[in-house]
Amino acid sequence: MVISHVTTFMSSLLRPSKFSHNLQTYTSKSSFVLFAYFSEFFICLTTFRREMASAPGVIESIIRNKLQTGLEAKHLDVINESYMHNVPKGAETHFKVVVVSDKFDGLTLIKRHRLVNDILKEELKSGVHALSIEAKTPAQWEASDKVVESSPNCRGGFGK
Asked: Least CB-packed of 70, 121, 139, 152 within 10 Å?
């Protein structure tokens, strides 16, 4: 449908004598129709891009599922921070996880981190470059302000 309108509109511009009796009206209507189609297309494209940008990636989903299942998390945030680093757009290499679980009761912070790292060992071997972990018990989470601190800006590596 859009192609047909575009073709008709373009042919009217190339062969004005065909529509000379009512060229102004036809061009105005065609321009409006063409504008309406392109406007609708642009809105759809913008919405699609916004949804894709906010949609979790494959690795993010795997991390979320493994931690939810393995720790029976009461609260879980998986944040892809790859965009903050010098990696290709859409990369899934740098993550922050905030996980609250009863399984952390009685464990030191290092043991909590080891537990999370053990659950995600395959991802850490195959592409996840950095993992920031906030591991809390439900009591610690309830006593906190529940605000996830932003990670520092990437310094570019190599001691920069």
From this structure: 152
Mean pLDDT, range 7-31, rounded to an integer: 51
135 beta partners: 99
- Collect contacts of 65-70 with beta carbons under 8 A, ≥24 apart: 66/119, 66/120, 66/123, 67/97, 67/99, 67/116, 67/119, 67/120, 70/119
Tell me the percentage of the chain whose pLDDT exceeds 70: 63
> Who contacts 64 (Cβ-Cβ below 8 Å, separation ≥6)?
56, 76, 78
Q: What's the mean per-residue pLDDT of the chain?
A: 77
pTM of the model: 0.63
